[in-house]
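Notes from hallway chat w/ T.B., transcribed later so I don't forget. T.B. wanted the structure written out for a chain they're using in a teaching module, and asked if we could keep both sequence and structure tokens in one place. Agreed to drop them here.
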Amino acid sequence: MLKLYSKINPLSPSSFTSKIIAKITDNIHLPVPLRSNLILLSKEREASSLPEGFLAYFTYSTVVLNVSSLNNVYHLPDELHYLDSDDIVSINPGIQTLRALYRRNSRHNSLLVTENCNNFCLMCSQPPRNINDRHIINEILTMIPMMSRDTVEVGITGGEPTLLGDDLVAIFKSFKNNLPDTSLHVLTNGRNFKDVDFVSKIASIEHHDLMFGIPLYSDVSNIHDYVVQADGAYNETVKGIVNLKTFGLKVEIRVVIHKQTYERLPKLAEFITRNLLFVDHVALMGLEMTGFTKANMDALWIDPIDYQEQLKDAVEILSRSGVNVSVYNHQLCLTPRSVWPYTKKSISDWKNEYMPECEGCEMRADCGGFFSSAHFKYSRSIKPFKSSV
């Protein structure tokens, strides 16, 4: 598991008066006029001198020979040595911390655009906070032009991104203008898409690959509303899905499987095939053991080994009707073999781990593994696949 947030040790005085966002380079020969907005990364572990003119410096060494002539020099701890050229970070000089915001070589870049939400889901992995965090918008709009145009996909998440209204539209526009070939995947509860004018604004951007991942937890409205802890959410969500598709936008239905949702999973699959067959993808997802899940464990936890039949039936119903279906966050040893072709390695690289029981498993390279938080609780039936001798 990668640490995206860490303390950093200053080796020289800081000239920063507030948090800064900047891109990393390892090019020590960069022309001087191009240095002032970049952070130089030096991977030399021995004492050495650093060229002048960069915004800041990250070094593997604790000794910089000309450190007295430089500002903003930081020793980078081992846990951050995965950072590389063209990555984007924020430095908070007041508390001497670094946060990795974007990694060029990762396929799992995600931007949290707000912590506010109009749902209060039982298993929310990012518990909402009622705070004024509009400053995040400016940070994101600053970051986007710094990102590599080769970026394949960026996730947008919250909180609930649609609460940003026109600011979310501005983010989509910036991505289209600066990264025209980059796909966007937005995690949203979909409720605010009941507003046709809002959907129309998003559609008018004509982004080439914009998909909205929207949770639908049951074919029964009161079950969905109970899971998300919001009366009327089901009707607004379904209306939002229909509105998005009416404007030709891509929709993925996401179903987190737990004690409140597993029994009717085949019924939900039937509902989708009869009423929402036009959606672009359905993801059946395992539970992440973090956030509100821990507090609501008794209401949520069911061992995945105990809902294999429901999972198999739901996949078969969706697949038979031509729905593009995937199974996320599940381990192969807990999944019926007929479902294996639909399983994906979906857990972001920075929070993906395997358990001690996985040692020696011949299917490990094909298995999605676990969220790092799964150490808190996971199936009683994890076992490695090994060839008989």
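Follow-up for T.B.: The longest strand covers residues 250-256. Might be a good example for the class.
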